[in-house]
UniProtKB/TrEMBL annotation, chain A:
Protein keywords: FAD, Flavoprotein
Upper taxonomic lineage: Bacteria, Pseudomonadati, Pseudomonadota, Alphaproteobacteria, Rhodobacterales
Residue stretches making up the FAD-binding PCMH-type domain: 1-171
GO molecular function: catalytic activity; FAD binding
Protein name: FAD-binding protein
Highest taxon listed in the record's lineage: Bacteria
Annotated organism of origin: Pseudooceanicola albus
UniProt keyword Lipid metabolism present: no
Record carries keyword Flavoprotein: yes
Automatic annotation (TrEMBL), chain B:
Source species taxonomy: Bacteria, Pseudomonadati, Pseudomonadota, Alphaproteobacteria, Rhodobacterales
Bias (Low complexity): 477-488
Listed Pfam families: FAD-oxidase_C (PF02913), FAD_binding_4 (PF01565)
Organism listed in the record: Pseudooceanicola albus
Name recorded for this polypeptide: FAD-binding protein
Cofactor dependence: FAD
InterPro entries xref list: FAD-bd_oxidored_4_C, FAD-bd_PCMH, FAD-bd_PCMH-like_sf, FAD-bd_PCMH_sub2, FAD-linked_Oxase-like_C, FAD-linked_OxidoTrans_Type4, Oxid_FAD_bind_N, Vanillyl_alc_oxidase_C-sub2
Top-level taxonomic group: Bacteria
Length: 374, 497
């Protein structure tokens, strides 16, 4: 199904006799059993006011189109969504609706915030076929409940997003990355966390097992003079003798970290663990001690751990080690035929409230069934 | 303004209720003497007041839970309260409610500098959070001008903003997790220092829910390293149109100041007379502040002042010292006090798209003239959050009602321009009956369905946010549905904002 308007979509959802799988660009991989509902017919730029930092677009609008539009005005999506194709190996082109539905946020989350922090409002057709509007197009808005936050990241389980209004920001005039080689995850994360606590506005803090050994990376963006100044102060404050990478070269580096290039290719299961930043190396050490090998990449100053595990996903081990530290683990790339749920169910009262909310918006439980366990 | 008729059955159970609350709380934590509940009869929206059944001031999440269990069993509505500085009547009691205040819960529970967060009890004031981490070089970014008095409890409930939110965002962007006590007494943890939680973004909808989903007893907040310094520049223009164009050009140029404040002619003249700030006599004044090291500040101000000059300013004053910076801010910071000197006033809080600024200011002037009242405008220009101040004389019969009617028309003008009724103060009772002018019925229904999940009996702050007629059926279990008018007082003068 490929609706061309909200009204048509509402009819389709209301009339659906079984499960509906929502599909934006299909970049996150294949859908489950049931009818596929494509959002590509709900595309187009509705409003773009650079001077108000506001963009309103149809949910099916390709990300690439939005990024080109913004770049022409020297602006960008501050939350730096990852290109999911790099890991999933899927074809297709990401849509804004899909990104908002997954709350996809890249390295800059540590400084600028997540996708959800830039969603000013959205429209959706919920599981009952109702056309709903939440939030608005202005930057400050506390009128009524913030349903736009609830829908962002709900992975289509509350409704089909049809339109999104976003806060955008200016792209910086300059950027630089400080790279220090040779540190293990633990020492690197201690430095990354220290860097985040200094007033130099670090906008990327990662650690990777680079081709020539482990690397700790810190990014700074802004006006040219300011970038040079802050990079200098940061280098003084932290151990090691950093190599400075600037401009397009720095941007390319962070594109690779955003998309998790280091773990691309192959069929190994890939995990995405969210933890308190200082617990990133702790979980890694625990997993290694339990005999789990595999390549890792740490982002968000340690709060995001990417892990490629050879062969079996080792779901019980990974989930238990993460949960012990209060975090959670998403299986982003699963081997064929794998029955492990990609996302863990929220526990306790949060799980019960989530399930009850979903029943309000999707009473027949037809939207993306099983994708996000309640 | 109407409030639901108090439920006689609830009123009748007062002795039993008070006795049961006394059994679970320390002696001083249950207040039922009318002379002592007086202080809880209203918040900073002082035009309306009402005495509650009693006030409880629990000292822990467990005590909050015990109180809520009792109220839940007896079917008694509960109005959560932080510091009572709401400008929207969010903490206004009804005659058949218990006011549950978190003012005794003010502890800092955990400071985690490495992970840039702090866990506090929500009765702590906004400023005390920054103070707790100041020595380590950190601060808590959302800074409502009531920050000396207002509590994190109310900040979370209202999703409060501040002067610096253009750069740092509002409460929801700086809130990592909460401990929430549901109406049936269940204590729930939502979020925390881990960047994302599985499942739906419950935290996102709890923030800004105006005390209607649960009582927030603890909060995890993001703290940030304090910038090296900050410096403002003052720019005067002959009209709001050109000032608006200047703001737009600055934003388009890619500089992101921490604050862009705007004052119109009436506001400039009143504040200057009051504070002696030495502002130019013009129709539009911008105060733009940037942060960083001295050299970084110069780099940003160079771009900003170059743009400002292109628009032909009446005056452009760069600060060269702490003292000069303070003088630039002096008038703006005393704007509300200055207005209070002249007259009583109502402070509105609508948001508009920045591009609609000149058109909306024109519309406000027209409406004010029609109503025969004066309106002064001061607002956060970077994000379009307006604070029109309607001046009136509370002692003149009928003038408050005229001022309120004008306020409603101005807010509807904001909605018509693509904006909203409230940018940071919340709906409360003040804007409750305008909600169906911004939202379609089905959208309000969807919001009420969220409350149904968290508070199925509609006992938590039930008479707020949603028009009474719309929520009547849901509130029926908790209280009467036919509306009455609560007691009305003359509005007090608010302090600086
Ligand atoms: C002089 C002045 C200046 C102001 N400036 C600003 C400003 O710049 N920006 C801004 O955004 N606001 C401003 N305000 C408004 C007000 O300060 C904020 O709304 C503030 O967040 C309210 O906090 P409070 O603790 O006083 O909450 P209260 O007034 O006690 O309550 C506000 C709301 O929160 C609910 N609530 C309170 N505690 C809890 C809890 N524990 N759990 C659940 N719900 C709860 C209440 O039921 C009510 O609906 C200003 C007010 C004044 C008087």
């Amino acid at each position: 199904m490929r609706p061309e308007s909200e009204a048509e979509l509402a009819e389709m959802v209301a009339g659906a006799g079984g499960p509906l799988w929502l599909r934006g660009g299909g970049t996150q991989g294949p859908c489950g059993a049931g009818a596929v509902l494509e959002t590509s017919g709900l595309a187009g730029v509705r409003l773009y006011e650079p001077g108000a930092l506001t963009l309103v677009v149809g949910a099916g609008t390709p990300l690439a189109e939005v990024e080109a539009l913004l770049a022409a005005q020297g602006q960008r999506l501050p939350f730096e969504p990852r290109d999911a194709r790099v890991l999933s190996g899927a074809a297709g082109a990401a849509t804004i609706g899909g990104i908002v539905a997954a709350n996809l946020s890249g390295p800059r989350r540590v400084q600028a915030g997540a996708c959800r922090d830039f969603v000013l409002g959205l429209r959706l057709v919920d599981g009952a076929g109702r056309i709903l509007s939440a939030g608005g197009r202005v930057m400050k808005n506390v009128t009524g409940y913030d349903l736009a936050k609830l829908v962002t990241g709900s992975r289509g389980t509350l409704g089909v997003i049809t339109e999104v209004s976003l806060k955008v920001l200016a792209a910086p005039r300059a950027e630089a990355t400080l790279i220090v080689r040779g540190q293990g995850a633990e020492a690197a994360v201690a430095d990354l966390c220290r860097a985040m606590g200094l007033p130099w506005e670090v906008s990327g803090a990662a650690w990777r097992e680079g081709p020539d050994g482990p690397e700790r990376l810190l990014r700074i963006e802004g006006l040219a003079g300011s970038v040079a100044y802050r990079a200098g102060r940061l280098a003084e404050a932290l151990p090691g003798d950093p190599r400075l990478v600037e401009g397009a070269q720095s941007a390319a580096l962070w594109r690779g970290i955003r998309d998790v290039d280091d773990l691309a290719g192959g069929q190994d299961p890939v995990w995405r663990l969210c933890l308190k930043p200082t617990d990133g190396p702790v979980v890694l050490a625990a997993l290694r001690a339990a005999g789990l090998e595999g390549r890792a990449l740490l982002d968000w100053s340690g709060g995001l751990v990417w892990l490629a595990v050879p062969g079996d996903s080792r779901a019980d081990l990974v989930r238990a080690a993460t949960a012990r530290l209060g975090g959670h683990a998403e299986l982003v790339r699963a081997p064929e035929g794998c029955t492990v749920p990609r996302l863990p169910p929220p526990s306790g009262a949060a799980g019960r409230l989530s399930a009850a909310l979903r029943a309000q918006f999707d009473p027949r439980a037809i939207l993306n069934p099983g994708l996000m366990p309640a | 303004m109407e409030m639901p008729v108090p439920d006689p059955a609830v009123l009748a159970c007062r002795p039993q209720l008070v006795a049961r609350l006394r059994a679970v709380l320390p002696e001083a934590a249950v207040i039922d003497a009318p002379s002592e509940t007086l202080a809880y009869e209203c918040d900073a929206f002082t035009a309306y007041r009402c005495a509650p059944l009693c006030v409880v001031l629990p000292g822990s999440s467990e005590e909050v839970s015990a109180c809520l269990k009792i109220c839940h069993e007896l079917g008694v509505p509960v109005v959560p309260r932080g510091a009572g500085t709401s400008l929207a009547g969010g903490a206004l009691p009804t005659a058949d409610c218990v006011v549950l205040g978190v003012a005794r819960m003010t502890r800092v529970l955990e400071v985690d500098l490495a992970n840039r967060c702090i866990r506090v009890e929500t009765g702590i004031t906004n400023l005390a959070v920054s103070a707790a981490v100041a020595d380590a070089g950190f601060f808590y970014a959302p800074d409502p001008s009531s920050q000396l008095a207002c509590a994190i409890a109310g900040n979370v409930a209202m999703n409060s903003g501040g002067a610096h939110c253009l750069k740092y965002g509002v409460t929801t962007n700086n809130l990592l997790g909460v401990t929430l006590v549901l109406m049936d007494g269940e204590v729930v943890q939502i979020g925390g220092p881990v960047p994302e939680a599985p499942g739906l973004d419950l935290l996102g909808v709890i923030c800004g829910s105006e005390g209607q989903l649960g009582v927030v007893t603890e909060a995890w907040l993001r703290i940030l390293p304090r910038p090296e310094g900050a410096r403002p520049v003052l720019i005067g223009y002959a009209g709001s149109e050109v000032a608006g164009a200047c703001v737009r050009d600055i934003i388009e140029a890619g500089v992101l100041p921490v604050a862009i404040e705007f004052m119109d002619g009436p506001c400039i003249r009143a504040t200057d007379a009051f504070s002696g700030a030495g502002y130019p006599d013009c129709e539009a004044l911008l105060i733009i502040e940037v942060e960083g090291s001295p050299a970084e500040i110069d780099e940003q101000l160079e771009i900003i002042t170059a743009i400002a000059r292109r628009h032909d300013p009446v005056e452009l004053r760069e600060s060269r010292s702490e003292a000069e910076s303070a003088r630039i801010w002096l008038g703006r910071k005393s704007a509300f006090g200055a207005m209070g000197q002249i007259n009583d006033y109502i402070c509105l809080d609508g948001t508009i798209p920045v591009s609609a600024l000149p058109e909306v200011l024109g519309g406000i002037a027209r409406l004010a003239a029609e109503a025969g009242l004066e309106v002064a405008n001061v607002f956060h220009a970077g994000d379009g959050n307006m604070h029109p101040l309607i001046l009136f004389d509370a002692n003149a019969p009928g003038e408050l009602a005229r001022a309120e009617a004008l306020g409603a028309e101005i807010l509807l003008l904001c909605v018509a321009a693509g904006g909203c009724l409230t940018g940071e103060h919340g709906v409360g009772v003040e804007k409750r009956d305008l909600m169906d002018r911004q939202f379609a019925g089905v959208d309000l229904e969807a919001q009420m369905q969220v409350k149904d999940v968290f508070d199925p009996g509609w006992l938590l702050n039930p008479a707020k946010v949603f028009p009474l007629g719309l929520s009547a059926g849901r509130r029926a279990g908790a209280g009467g549905s036919a509306p009455i008018a609560p007691g009305r007082d003359s509005p007090a003068i608010f302090g600086e904002r």
